[in-house]
From TrEMBL:
Protein name: DNA-binding response regulator
Organism: Streptomyces venezuelae
Keywords tagged on the record: DNA-binding, Phosphoprotein, Transcription, Transcription regulation
Domain named HTH luxR-type: residues: 152-217
Matches recorded under SUPFAM superfamilies: C-terminal effector domain of the bipartite response regulators (SSF46894), CheY-like (SSF52172)
InterPro entries linked to this entry: CheY-like_superfamily, NreC/VraR/RcsB-like_REC, Sig_transdc_resp-reg_C-effctor, Sig_transdc_resp-reg_receiver, Tscrpt_reg_LuxR_C, WalR-like
GO function terms (MF aspect): DNA binding
Highest rank taxon of the organism: Bacteria
Modified residues (4-aspartylphosphate): D57
Length: 227
């Protein structure tokens, strides 16, 4: 039997944390292992409770969610911890900064309860997740103001043609099954390609692959999804 996803909730509003805790604990495949009211406390609890995933509010006292995420991503002992950023605000600055800090997902707080649980499952499984609105603004912003926050070892030029095809599709939001179907590959082969691309580009997860693809010009906003 698969162990439940160990979830840490970080939000400066006690009632919000309590509501999220009831929701998460109602799901049989996940459990709340801690609650934090500040970014600093979230980092400490992630270490002590060995959480699998942190639902992180962006605006918190002491240390905001983005800085807390950056600390988690920089800690080798917490390499497997995923961060799902949850906030009232969905401005492009928040999306870009959160993803570059190491977040694997981004949702606004008016997300429906079932969607939040699905988002936790998606991110915990190793996939990235972005709200549709913020995704469009993310693409526009990274093209306006490129940033070197995502480490790139050689850039897409160092990829094979097949890997470039896969990266284009990942940047468009396709999952491994959809990439496989589009390119006539097995799901396992598609997954292997994605893993190798992440290794070559120094990307922490699929969310950072999206940034790399757009910043490098491999994918342009508004273009048609094609291999």
């Amino acid at each position: 039997m698969t162990s439940p996803v160990r979830v840490l909730l970080a939000d400066d509003q006690t009632l919000v944390r309590a509501a999220f805790a009831m929701l998460v604990d109602s799901a049989p495949d996940m459990e709340v292992v801690g609650q934090a009211g500040t970014g600093r406390a979230a980092v400490d609890l992630a270490r002590s409770e060995r959480a699998d995933l942190v639902v992180m509010d962006i605006r918190m006292p002491d240390l905001d969610g983005i800085e807390a995420t950056r600390l988690l991503a920089a800690d080798e002992d917490l390499a497997g911890v995923k961060v799902l950023m949850l906030t009232t605000y969905d401005t492009d600055e928040h999306v870009v900064d959160a993803l570059r800090a190491g977040a694997s997902g981004f949702l606004v707080k008016d997300t429906k309860p079932a969607e939040l649980l699905d988002a936790i499952r998606t991110v915990a499984a190793g996939d990235s997740l972005l709200s549709p609105g913020p995704t469009a603004r993310l693409i526009a912003r990274v093209l306006r103001a490129p940033d070197t926050g995502v480490p790139v070892a050689g850039g897409p030029d160092g990829l094979s043609e097949r890997e470039r095809q896969v990266l284009r599709l990942v940047a468009r939001g396709l999952n491994n099954q959809e990439v496989a179907d589009t390119l006539g590959l097995s799901p396992l082969t598609a997954k292997t390609h994605v893993s190798r691309i992440m290794g070559k580009l120094g990307a922490r997860d699929r969310a950072q692959l999206v940034i790399i693809a757009y910043e490098s010009g491999l994918v342009a906003p508004g273009s048609v999804v094609s291999p």
